[in-house]
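A common beginner's mistake is to predict each chain separately and then try to dock the pieces by hand. The better habit, illustrated here, is to supply every component at once so that their relative placement is modeled jointly.
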Amino acid sequence: MLKDKPVIAPHECVDCPIRHRAVCARCDVNELEELEAIKYYRSYEAGQTVIWSGDRMDFVGTVVSGIGTLTQTMEDGRTQMVGLLLPSDFVGRPGRDGSAYDVVATTDLVMCCFRKRPFEQMMERTPHLSQRLLEMTLDELDAAREWMLVLGRKTAREKIASLLSIVARRDASLKLGVPDGPLVFDLPLTREAMADYLGLTLETVSRQISALKRDGVIHLEGKRHVTIPDFTRLMEEAGDDSDGGMLV
Amino acid sequence: MLKDKPVIAPHECVDCPIRHRAVCARCDVNELEELEAIKYYRSYEAGQTVIWSGDRMDFVGTVVSGIGTLTQTMEDGRTQMVGLLLPSDFVGRPGRDGSAYDVVATTDLVMCCFRKRPFEQMMERTPHLSQRLLEMTLDELDAAREWMLVLGRKTAREKIASLLSIVARRDASLKLGVPDGPLVFDLPLTREAMADYLGLTLETVSRQISALKRDGVIHLEGKRHVTIPDFTRLMEEAGDDSDGGMLV
DNA sequence: CGAGAGCCTTGATGCAGATCAAACGCGCGA
DNA sequence: TCGCGCGTTTGATCTGCATCAAGGCTCTCG
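With all components supplied together, the output reads:
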């Protein structure tokens, strides 16, 4: 299918909606040009709500920079974060009209958007587009279900370790580096946001982070800058058996 | 696309892999015949494991009868159910080799299977197949994320009410009836299975069911036969705002 | 430089649900 | 028919996390 056409290298294809973690070998030039025609950028300030649950969504897109969250809220104010949006993550529900959750910009956020209707029309003509989206959605489903285990069965300490290991992994894969030594990254969430992700209170989050620091599992400079001297140790703390690798 | 072809009524299409809750207007005869060629049935006994997490899966399929669960287990034995498989539910991960979770038959289970490789080849030729699968996967993702709210933020009583309302809804939609009066159905899960779904212990499940019974929210005959006199009341107990309807 | 606002940490106390333990009820096979 | 086993119920106690409360750190703005 790519025969006779120049292949676009991943880094030339930052905005591609079916890019996933910087892998996008399947794009060909025609599609990119077609996508270009329906593409635009939007930016949001920290704290701004990108879409309210139930609102009509007229675009799909990918996060270019910044951090966003998908959250659900009960009338009495209890909230649960159901997804974390990091650069390269896809946002949107092709074939669906409204959003199912609030999408909130946690930091300043830039999105590369594609008008939804023409995008869906492209999907009908381009089987590998919907297949790729299916794969991405299956990945999200796996992640959501893995998180169900975290929420349902893990202790507070294990929850924190699980979150740290996920963020560390995502951060490392974005840097495209295979870090041999300690992992270093900035935690993009407040204690409250972490609590909402983990089904805890912010006080418990704070206490458990202090405990992990005290026990040498992590080091902290300031409140955000994390270094993980031994990733295997962190995985053990998270209660994960397989090393999970840095592969994904 | 359906022009000039006889449309298959839902009830004639019980095994269709892209059937979803008995709606399958998009099938046309050619595809059904092609599917027929790669179709076979399998049955499993209660308690039998259909697929182990990580195992190679060489089919996709739909549940024809019986109840199954998707579960994840930690080395120390803690388990979390991440999905419930009721008749008409799709099982499988087109484009993926292995299963991400254990699939367990909770009751005797009959599946209508399709060989995976030819099915995937069909997907490449048939855009609406992968689009339909994408829609179904988005539905599963929504359900998983809704369950994250249940696991992370609801009390034990709310969790039980949430589970009952989901099973009641699914049961009603399978019967194709729009029940005006009280809902009556059989609970297809043991207390332990419910506990694994809800992130609780079986003792807590038992106590909360007793409490809901005592408060008149539900009635029980034996341990399994449930009647719900007032569905709205149950929804309130579940902490759900919108009535949610019987629509899905 | 000081005041205030956010965000975070830490301490004291309370409670929902886990854990440990015992007994019930029902179906089934001898 | 009895006795056994499995799933369930119920009680007593324990504990991890929530809740309530008080400061601390750091950045910004006057």
